[in-house]
From TrEMBL:
CDD domains: SDR_c. Residues 27-207 form the Ketoreductase domain. Residues 1-24 are annotated as: Disordered. InterPro entries: KR_dom, NAD(P)-bd_dom_sf, Sc_DH/Rdtase_CS, SDR, SDR_fam. Pfam families: adh_short (PF00106). Belongs to the short-chain dehydrogenases/reductases (SDR) family. Coiled coil: none annotated. It comes from Streptomyces sirii. This is SDR family NAD(P)-dependent oxidoreductase.
Length: 277
């Protein structure tokens, strides 16, 4: 679904296991959308698991620098690539330069995306959302493939709306459905090299993106955004929102050696919201 974090609305978050130290020792990774939310947590999980070098990409240069400092404090080398996924030439040039400097790549996590609402005839938003969520993911992946080592790992962060629909979200739903199809096809293309490609499908995740979305919706209908968040929590069987860290831990598992036989799959983390759909 998307990404809410200021304030405690989750009420009783789950326990998450710490990464296995050294599990990703020496690995190099690219994480997009790394400035906040799930992307930030993925960067921290990889660093805690021993990854040696992280290339972190986001259009939020200030937020990205903060995460770079956090990753370095965990002992991993980290560089920031401030770029917009829609600006393909700049994106490819900056990313390729860092990949050349790293010399190799073992892990790619495509997390960057937007969740703008749109009416069924809103072509401007339609094109923008697909350009970032789907075409931007393709551009990053295509740039990284030249450097991705055999036995490498790719994880695409989709959404439970990659399997379902939602009003005023045709663009987002289409982009996330497309990302699942892209994951399946790419997994078959790269299987001969031992590279696995999987998708993670978060539901209601307590991140800044979700808070912004619900605040905008609340403003439109004159509702209280905090109350809307509490109602969202009540609709989840576990009676809480998923924590960004929990989604990141699933990514951490999929990029590890423990998941070497898992590919072309879409794994949901939603507290039971979709009832196993």
């Amino acid at each position: 679904m998307s990404d809410v974090s200021e304030g405690d609305v989750s009420e009783g978050g789950g326990r998450t296991e710490r990464p296995r130290p050294g599990e990703l020792a020496g690995k190099a990774a690219v994480v997009t959308g790394a400035a906040q939310g799930i992307g930030r947590e993925v960067a921290l999980v990889l660093a805690e698991s021993g990854a040696a070098r992280l290339i972190l990409l986001d259009r939020d240069a200030e937020g990205l620098e903060t995460v770079v400092k956090e990753v370095r404090a965990l002992g991993a080398a980290a560089v920031a690539v401030a770029a917009d996924l829609r600006e393909r030439t700049t994106l490819r040039t900056r990313l390729r330069a860092e990949l050349r400097a790293a010399g190799r790549l073992d892990i790619l996590v495509n997390n960057a995306g937007v969740a703008d609402e749109n009416g069924p005839d809103d072509e401007t938003t339609w094109l923008r959302v697909l350009d970032i969520n789907l075409h931007g993911t393709f551009a990053v992946t295509a740039t990284c493939l030249e450097y991705l080592a055999d036995q490498g790992r790719i994880v695409n962060v989709s959404s439970i709306l990659g399997k379902a629909g939602k009003m005023r979200n045709t663009a987002y739903c289409a982009s996330k459905h497309g990302l699942i199809g892209y994951t399946k096809g790419l997994a078959l293309d790269l299987a001969a090299r031992g590279i696995t490609v999987n998708a993670v499908l978060p539901g209601w995740v307590d991140t800044p993106m979700l808070r912004r979305e619900l605040a905008a919706q609340a403003d439109e209908i004159g509702a209280d955004p905090v109350r809307m968040l509490r109602q969202a929590r009540k609709g989840v069987p576990l009676r809480r929102l998923v924590e960004a860290r929990e989604a990141a831990e699933l990514v951490g598992f999929l990029v590890s050696g423990r998941a070497a036989a898992i590919t072309a799959q879409s794994l949901t983390v939603d507290g039971g919201f979709t009832r196993g759909m």
